[in-house]
Amino acid sequence: MRDADADADPDPLVAPEPGPPPVATLVRRVPVGAGAAGGLRGVFLHVHGYNDYFFQDHLARAVEDAGYAFFAVDLRAAGRSLRPGQVPHFVEDLREPATDLSVAVAAVRGLHPGLPVAVHAHSTGGLVAPLWAHAHRRQRLVDALVLDSPFLDLNSSWLNRTIATRVLDAVGPWSPLAVLSAAPSAYATHLLAANGGRWEFDPTLKRPDGVPVRAGWLRAVRQGQARFARGLDVACPVLVAHSATSGPDDLANPLLDEQDTVLDVEQIARLAPRAGPDVTIRSIEGGVHDLTLSADGPREAYLSSMLTWLDDRLGHLGRSGRRPGPSR
């Protein structure tokens, strides 16, 4: 699917970069069994994070087995949507991927009219999704929001975060493509089956050597995190899940397969309630950064907990996908 970025206001200090128009790719899984017979409970849309794309077939199968139609979206300049001439994952405003999310939700609602829609968003996607849901809270575009290890703050000290934000505000508008850091991802390296991990994925789309962090992108992230920290009013129920512990992103870390080595889980737990009035927080012992890619035990615990929560929160919705009573 293609869309023009109608919501983003261009920064007048930054000359637009020429390049191909943005593309977002909707990945569809056709349900079988109960779903094929018309017994669907709802629609589930997965949104990936940074240095990521949709490849988690096991997530799709679990969701389908639970009675939901499964979809995923590869956002602009990411995964299947990356085009020649584009900088991977680069945006200067989180309203850009949020526009892709709006288009994807409209598409899945068009394919399954009347069914409730749940958005499942990971890491940077887990920051974009609540900001998007808050911005569209009066339209009630989504009926439940699941955030898998959302990127709510930088994994660094308060002083470093403050300094970094001030530097980004000065540098970002003038040199948005400036590389701030570039390092291999021990997390992605460890996950890849070719390196002895448990998951098969395309290393050109989820790169063990990492994707450079650029000033314009990180500035957009910091602006989004600041907005989240001030408090949102997401109108639907929100589930925020994270690993029980964090650790260093280092192949020498003996707990690399049992911790979030990308984000600080204490920050996630502290900030999560600011998403809105109805937030549930779950800690998954032994989970990794993407809880759906954890070892068997924690992965099953996460999927079971998440699907049970969805059934509880969406089960009272009728075929219209709307809650009784006045909208907020």
Automatic annotation (TrEMBL):
Residues 13-22 have a biased composition (Pro residues). InterPro entries: AB_hydrolase_fold (IPR029058), Hydrolase_4 (IPR022742), MAG_DAG_Lipase (IPR051044). Pfam families: Hydrolase_4 (PF12146). Residues 41-292 form the Serine aminopeptidase S33 domain. Residues 1-22 are annotated as: Disordered. Keywords: Hydrolase. GO terms for molecular function: hydrolase activity. Residues 1-10 have a biased composition (Acidic residues). PANTHER family: PHOSPHOLIPASE-RELATED. This is Alpha/beta hydrolase.
